[in-house]
Design a protein that fits this description.
GO terms for molecular function: 8-amino-7-oxononanoate synthase activity; pyridoxal phosphate binding. This protein is of the alpha/beta class and 388 residues long. Helices cover 39% and strands 17% of the residues. The chain has 13 helices and 14 strands. The chain has helices at residues 11-20, 61-74, 89-101, 113-124, 139-148, 160-168, 193-203, 254-263, 265-268, 275-287, 292-311, 331-343, 373-386; strands at residues 32-33, 38-41, 44-48, 106-110, 129-134, 151-155, 175-181, 206-210, 234-238, 248-252, 323-329, 346-347, 349-351, 361-366. Strands 4-10-9-8-7-5-6 form a 7-stranded mixed beta sheet, sandwiched between helices. The chain has a 4-stranded mixed beta sheet with strand order 1-2-3-12. A hairpin with a 4-residue loop joins strand 1 (32-33) and strand 2 (38-41). Helix 4 (113-124) runs parallel beside helix 5 (139-148). Bound molecules: pyridoxal-5'-phosphate. Residues 112-114, 117, 138, 140, 181, 185, 210, 212-213, 238, 240, 248 line the site of pyridoxal-5'-phosphate (PLP).
Amino acid sequence: MVSDRGVAKWAFVEAAFQKRGPSNRRSLREFAPEPGPYLRQGDRPLLDFSSNDYLGLAQDPRLIAVATEATRRYGTGAMASRLVCGSFPLHQQLEASLAEFSQREAALLFSSGYQANATLLPTLFDRQSLVFVDRLAHNSLLFGIQASKAQWRRYRHNDYEHLEQLLQQAPVGVRLGIVSETVFSMDGDRTEVDRLADLADRYGAILYLDDAHALGVLGPEGSGLALRHPRVDVAVGTFGKACGSAGAFVVASRSLCDYWINTCPGLIYTTAIAPPVVAAALAAVQLLPELEPERQHLQAIAAELRQACRDRGWDCGPSQTQIVPLLVGESEQALVVAQRLEAAGILAMAIRPPTVPVGTARLRLVLRSDHQPEHLQQLVTALSEGWA
Ligand SMILES: *Cc1c(COP(=O)(O)O)cnc(C)c1O
């Protein structure tokens, strides 16, 4: 329909699809979790190489028990913002646990990692700031930086020399920031946090790191790479990955957390996390220290998968963790491989632009601590038949 003003109201929607092209178009599909590393699609169980449930905690009976109990005790919702009357003993307890676990003065909960990054960064930087961000950083980090209205530059992925060059060129008197993930969600490689901290110290920059894929998996007691690092000013963790529930948190100094209680819209103007979710997250954080055998198994099995791929000449990029990308190149081809794997009973997602740069479409293979060697065997066999 074209109005009197000659404008087709929804033309931009069709234009967006046109621009993206059919091989990069997304749609929603339904899955149901099954016991073990499986997801059911319709009536077919698929071997899971796609979820971020690295330690299998989303189905853990201990988390299910405390979440059920918290629902009985507190109900299904927190009923208000933390600043009104939605701050229950459970929320305080989880924050105290997180501060202790991270060896920090304080922690604050957020409804999601996306919301944390999107609304914390604008409280740290303004028009007079200059922020440097890794070229492959998560969309929520970019979103937060853009919302801050700061000037910003991308530095080449994990390229500390490039970052230093940019820092050297920064004008004096502006507030500087360095923003990155610690484990990159689509590449599975790690940042050298010490190198970033050295640069942040030398140039007086605020260092803000997102530990979403490291929490529970790497570091002492599964504490990630940034949370306990004394020279990281602000570290964000999420509960939706290895912790098996949902929501997120930030750790920092007491005074920064007090500042956010007064200034961060993503904390002030939103309903507190629901009691069962808080209880599950608390149980996960308390469990993490004792999951060392699971972490070791996860790393061992990831190393095994990378080796199997490299032996066959397949490119898994710079992966060093439980996230193993298999670089395919074009979106169409990545979709074809994913479909063939699915026909063989394996769920491995094709990740396409704009989530990853054009020409680097990939299968994102994600390991979990309940994967066994025979699961890898099944994957590698299916890949050999479906791709190479
Ligand atoms: C998943 C993810 C987020 C978003 O966290 P949610 O709690 O799922 O919103 C933020 N940052 C990174 C690096 C992530 O991988």
